[in-house]
Model the fold of this input.
Amino acid sequence: MSAVQGLKILVVDDEPAMVGALGALLGQEGHRIVAAYDGEEALHRFRAESPDLVLLDLAMPGLDGAAVCREIRATSDTPIIVVTGEADADITAELLDAGADDYVRKPFKGQELLARMRAVMRRLDQRRVRSGWQLDKARHEIRWGDQRLDLTATEFRIARRLVERLGELVEHDELLSYAWPNVRDPDQLWLKPHLARLRDKLRAVGAPVPVAVRGVGYRLDAEGGDEPRPAELPPQPGSAARRNPIGTEETPPRR
Done:
């Protein structure tokens, strides 16, 4: 099975015809594209959509491809393939130094681009395997070493995003959009019970657990390390159990 099946791909190019051509090619392969037509829009869409892969034009109005590449690479290991008509070897070297994983020169054949996409995604998967994590999107499975995690659909979506952004801070809003993709404005409180159950399942197989960064989000590390469990305080006299706004005391409806 292809390593690049069903990806969300950010396509950045100031030529609508090129965006359309790439959209048609990638759509035939089962991918979904998010389009941006300049550097500023590219960064906005990257933060909002959290794509699996970026196809990035070099020459654009405002921020050029190299600047966009550096901005993305400062916070994420999402694969970046630069699509450029530039033939200068020095510029190509600059792009790779800026953090691009590969590049293709215009004009290019569709099969060449698809092959390069498969290669960069394989390399990303291999880095994760070496860390101990294995992510199989097609089967909706996550493994730590040789142990498969028994996750609900929501827990899988949360864990998947944390593994995809391994070692990086994933903000609350990003996790919410992945955990409940069909819900508009999901409540941040919904994360807490699902993450609690996910942590228990990770501890059971000796895997690292998500570390909370107070008020910002969560980070999953490549190797062990556990958050200290908070001490439980005795209930205050006359106090009622706190209920969250979605029903049960700490458990939102599963989706």
